[in-house]
């Protein structure tokens, strides 16, 4: 079992609250930012990039994304020299600038050259100091970029939304889901919302609930969550030839504590499989504690895309889940 506090989520929530409470400067004159989801512009000299400083940046920002069956980096990074970082090159939605200078500072700034935009400026008096600053601040840097990308993805989803009012009536839950999805199955106990991918496969959202005592504490926690999703998912999701949709047994899922819509939740990331059918993929499961209704509200996103990279597919599902509003 792997269990740890979901520190990035806590940092992200704190940063969002601080941003909302602070005064806003006028950004109306700025250009709109550009960039693919989870692409990051890295501004530093070639000498820094090709040395230990660049390696430290890659250690964190190109680290493998949690919960995927194959390694994919957190961000697709594009490095450029500082002298090229002018005009149009400055309007990427996220950027990291690393320089040698007279001070040792890390600053996270919003909408400096475009809107919306998150820029991180790291200045160090030596290469070793730059490495220390990157290492000491990597969690809040990643959290800042994560917030920006989640908000951007949610904005794109809201352009055309699926009408799922029945989800509110049944579970007291609203989600922002793209109209590219459809309701594949719905009843009093279980919702399955699905988007078919152009090449092959699908991305999926599941919603159901279980009693509070269904998920225990400490030593039984991960076992209970696996048992829950194997039981519910295996019972409701149709699989050919008597197979079952279950958690892959070979790898222990990652378990985090976090919040969703201000409520305590367990977040589980791992791999699902259908045994003997060579079907598998990543999932992210949120078990949201709702004491008022004596339940855990379960919202899960999973992907089946055998011929595609899955980082951004799962990221879309996380953006949908994090739009949750719970009565």
From TrEMBL:
Pfam families: DUF4837 (PF16125). It comes from the Bacteria. This is DUF4837 domain-containing protein. It comes from Aureitalea marina.
